From TrEMBL:
Record keywords: Oxidoreductase
CDD domains in the cross-refs: AKR_EcYajO-like
GO cellular component terms, semicolon-separated: cytosol
PANTHER family: ARYL-ALCOHOL DEHYDROGENASE AAD16-RELATED, NADH-SPECIFIC METHYLGLYOXAL REDUCTASE-RELATED
NADP-dependent oxidoreductase domain boundaries: 15-326
UniProt-recorded name of the protein: Oxidoreductase
Lineage: Eukaryota, Fungi, Dikarya, Ascomycota, Pezizomycotina
Family matches, as Gene3D superfamilies: NADP-dependent oxidoreductase domain
Keyword Oxidoreductase in record: yes
The UniProt record lists the keyword Oxidoreductase: yes
GO molecular function, one term: oxidoreductase activity
Family assignment from sequence similarity: Belongs to the aldo/keto reductase family. Aldo/keto reductase 2 subfamily.
């Protein structure tokens, strides 16, 4: 595994970040592909042994169970806390672990009043609860999962105070428009508060809208790019029309990746993979690595963890990058 600084910070993360949404409760949000504890813990150990030292989760993943499994893995395998970079997110409510769903993100009322969103109260409550589930005294990178209409000053002051208290070391954003990210970043700068170190957006060969404004802004600000869904929920990891158990159950694949050009792009990934003697996923991830990003990858088997570093050995020429990018057409902004 190789490592690089997260943006302009001193924190180094593995170039492949382990996506921990895969680990938790298969009943969560109708996600039968999520792996339970007995399958998840050995995979977390394997990732650590493979040098993947950076794990991304969220308080809402499997209603907190994902965070709990990370804590259990560290304890069971005697993994020193200092050797792992834990990234988690807040915004959504956390339900009873057996609850199958969550409400519309706009609902902060009734039984859920102050149980979600970015008020100072909920930010502090959510962090305390994540610390308890993770069984740790600090979070390496705390990220805003989504954004609501809370005033930027309240959000950034609360986050800064958590950094000052030592409960959070770095701040990250996720899935928002560039103007929203800029507003938060400059609010922090004007008040000498802690600014964002990372940005987690939806970015892959089939969805590249982040390249228009968010990515250039982040590069100018020294904010590290850690894209989620780098394989477009598996579409870039297999030949077109091939199905997996997850894809057959996944409504978001159709919603987010419906571009007419997708079949051509996937076929070009397949073509380059054959030429280079590597997997299709290695080509898709290598494309992001060449852009300087550290993609968040869901790895749900020992074999996939063992091959995760394959992308680091794939060299894409400028001509090959142009081949992969040429057929892309603008899409509606999604996942915000």
């Amino acid at each position: 595994m190789e490592y690089q600084r997260l943006g302009k910070s001193g924190l180094k993360t593995s170039k492949i970040i382990l996506g921990c949404m895969t680990f938790g409760n298969p009943a969560w949000e109708g996600s039968p592909w999520v792996l339970p504890e007995d399958e998840a813990l050995p995979l977390l150990k394997k990732a650590y042994d493979s040098g993947i030292n950076t794990w991304d989760t969220a308080n809402s993943y499997s209603n907190g169970t994902s965070e709990i499994l990370i804590a259990k893995a560290l304890a069971k395998y005697n993994i020193p806390r200092s050797r792992v970079v834990i990234m988690t997110k807040l915004y959504y409510p956390v339900f009873d672990p057996d609850s199958p769903s969550r409400p519309n993100p706009a609902i902060n009322d009734g039984e859920l009043v102050n149980q979600m969103g970015l008020s100072r109260k909920h930010i502090f409550d959510a962090v305390e609860e994540s610390l308890a589930r993770l069984n740790t005294t600090y979070i390496d990178v705390l990220q805003l999962h989504r954004l609501d209409d809370t005033e930027p000053e309240e959000i950034m002051c609360a986050l800064h105070d958590l950094v000052r208290m030592g409960k959070v070391h770095y701040l990250g954003a996720s899935s928002m428009y560039c103007w929203q990210l800029a507003r938060l970043q400059y609010t922090a700068k004007m008040n000498n508060w802690t600014t964002f170190t990372s940005m987690q957006g939806l970015w892959n060969l089939l969805y590249r809208e982040e390249e228009r404004e968010v990515n250039p802004f982040c590069r100018a600000e020294g904010i590290g790019l850690i894209p989620w869904s780098p394989l477009a929920r598996g579409l870039l990891a297999r030949p077109w029309n091939a199905q997996t158990y997850r894809s057959s159950q996944d409504k978001k694949t159709v919603k987010w990746f419906s571009g007419e050009q997708n079949e051509v792009i996937v076929s070009r990934v397949e073509q380059l993979a054959r030429m280079k003697g590597c997997s299709m996923s290695a080509v898709a991830i290598a494309w992001l690595l060449k852009k300087g990003a550290c993609p968040i990858v869901g790895l749900n088997s020992m074999e996939r963890i063992e091959s995760a570093g394959e992308a680091l050995r794939v060299e894409l020429s400028d001509e090959e990058v142009r081949l992969l990018e040429a057929e892309y057409r603008p899409l509606p902004v999604e996942a915000i």
